[in-house]
Amino acid sequence: MAAANDDEILEGFLCPICKADLKSATQLTSHFESQHEEEQDLLRSLKDIFGKAKKIILNADESELKETFDRALRLNTQDTFYVEEEQTVGVCRSSSEYFRAVRSARLERYATETNKLLIRLDKLVCNMPTEPSQRKQHEQEVVPWLDGSSVKLCPNCAKPFSLTRRKHHCRLCGSILCHDCSLFLDLNIAKAIVDPSAPQPQPSQEVTEKTGLRLCEHCYNLVELRKQMQESRNAKTALMTSYEQMQSLMDQARPSVAMYEKMCQSLFDGETTYNLQDVNAMRGKIGKLAEGIDLLSKQIVTFAGEPGTRQAKLQNSIRQAAVNYIKEELLSLRKLPTESRIEEVRKERYERAQRQVELERRRVEKEREWKEGEGSRNGGASIQHDDDNPLLEQMNIIRGYIRDARKELRFEEVAILEANLKELKKEYQLQMLSNKT
Questions:
Q1: Is the pTM of this model over 0.90?
Q2: Between vectors from CA 436 to CA 431 and to CA 437, what angle results, nearest 5°?
Q3: Coil, strand, or helix at residue 185?
């Protein structure tokens, strides 16, 4: 490369003396030997440069590369200086409108074609006959099939049709294809695509001609694209998932809080249905639910959202509502009574029950005496031994159920079983009183 007198930049195998372009290194060397004999030192330097360049091209050492270029710069008799000038911006043109027009036409064509396929798919899956012969006739009535008498090759794979490679038709466009190029769409999935409000079915392991619709690759891709669009629209975001989980924990906490209040009231009344360990276990369960609600509400606030937007305000409102719910409903529970207070109340309740039993025994004795005056009806009845009493066996079975229910924190079931146990105890006491008399 060299600079001419008019500041024109020249490139190629140029003679450093006369600036002639010799097109190759060999011609440049010959030209220099014949035209510029007096510059033999420069010729040797030029040969040395070309020799070093050849070695560099043939994987020469990197140090030689640097030395060669440094020497070439030193041997350059005419120093050329390049001044970096600021480039001016030329004419520019925006192609956005053109690209939008091309894309809109393409999308509109695909949308129109997809809508036509969905209309045909709706007609196919609705009132689909169960009989194979009727089903084939129904499919041909909805979508006319192309005449394949003149078609010798599969349009997709270009393989010839024969006895082993039969001709098939796409159920949405009616085109001809072979079995290997066919794709099958599950009927349940087809119904879900036509009716997005229907529940999404689970795809079967293998879809065959009996359980699906035979489609060509083009129609299958368009229907699958529409299915993916529906799934993306119905897909739940991480924020929605966290909010639903928080609502689920709140739904679990409400009956737990009501059960805790019922258990506390039972202890204050002196009942033996629940004990202090049961109530503490229920309180621990409510505490875990409160921790989960608090953690999910914090997670909702941390989701990306620009400050001051409607989404950010909604997330902050959800967090504040969760905090208020935890403070007012889950952390403001009634304090438990002490064990001494529980024992005292139970003792008073037991004494009242004993007095009622004594009054009932006296009433039964009076009725017994009155009946004996007229003649006892049960004089010859034998008294059943306590060990063989079925009431005792039933009470033992219920006590086992109560222990299992307490281990699994099913305290509502405990309350029902305790009520049944009380009825059996009362019946057993009345039976014992009647036997004594």
A1: no
A2: 100
A3: strand
